[in-house]
Amino acid sequence: MTVLVLTRRHMDATADLVVTELARRGIPLVRLDPGDFPQSSDLTARIGPGQGGWTGVWRGQHRDLPLGEVTAVYYRRPSPTRLHPGLSADDAHWARAEARAGLGGVLTSLPCTWINHPHHNAIADCQPLALATAVRSGLTVPATLITNDPTEARSFIASLPGGRAAYKPLGNTGPSGPGRQQYALWTTPVTADQTTPDIQLTAHLFQEWVDKAYEVRLTAVDDRLFAAQIHAGSQASREDFRRDYDALTYTTCDDIPHSVRNGVRKLMAALHLRYVAMDFLVDQKGEWYAVDVNPGGQYGFVPHLRDPITRAIADVLQEGEPA
């Protein structure tokens, strides 16, 4: 058996936790970055009559991976494809698409255990679909509007209790371009009079502002649920806890409502996920609101859950199914 860890070449704290645990158990593993292909790794894969799937080798800078030995894959935010700098823009666009279809197509066809399969991650990363799946799974979601109509946005926000909404990006990062570094867009409170005509330029997501008592980060690995209360100690962290990790305190959360437990498991089944990190806002009355579904979310920032979640992921990978 071999566990394949697909992650970026340089340190990823979450992937490092899993790699360390697998190594401690003596589980054979190969860590490779798909972004290295084709610039600094080579793929040779064959399929033909009588074969059940692709056979061959992916040769990295330091390790070779026989495809037939893979029993499980841990997919953790690999880096973008790197290409030869001499390619023109048009040739680079074509080469990048071919590299993804070639290496990505071979790897995603491996019939083994995935945490998570990238196709399933891509679907779950679509926020409108994830929120709709959460509702269909029995979870409570705050009133939410997606629009590019400034009038509709103003009307929706004005109708909310307190006249305030949370603006949240539909993607994971802000705008970028040549010479510009990508950056995160935080959850931001907004009132009706703060909306502008520029809303019409693209889709925007507005969500009812929940007067939270605390947040819960709930991480699920198959049927095992791990939850922690997150208490914000600054204004920035009350708006979006990612803005000020130093101001956060964590406590164990053992009283997960039965409806939330069932809803999370139904959502995972519907989206074909074996791992998910979800954020809930718990209001002053104890009502849980699902506000984020992240199939690749980190978990190491919650100290007392770091080791249990790592062991749970390693358990699934260790019991992986042969390709």
- Class based on secondary structure composition and strand pairing: alpha+beta
Q: Architecture of the largest domain, CATH level 2?
A: 3-Layer(aba) Sandwich
- Give the termini separation: 9 Å
List the strand order in the largest sheet.
14-13-12-15-16
Order of helices and strands: EHEEEEEHEHHEHEEEEEHEHEEH
* Rg: 22 Å
CATH first level of the largest domain: Alpha Beta
Report the average pLDDT across residues.
92
Q: Helix and strand layout, with pairings?
A:
Elements: E1 2-7, H1 13-24, E2 29-32, E3 42-46, E4 55-59, E5 64-66, E6 70-76, H2 89-108, E7 113-115, H3 118-124, H4 127-136, E8 144-147, H5 150-159, E9 164-168, E10 188-191, E11 204-208, E12 212-221, E13 224-232, H6 235-239, E14 248-252, H7 258-271, E15 275-283, E16 288-294, H8 303-318
Parallel strand pairs: 1-2, 1-6, 6-7
Antiparallel strand pairs: 3-4, 4-5, 8-11, 9-10, 9-11, 12-13, 12-15, 13-14, 15-16
Helix pairs in contact: 1-8, 4-7
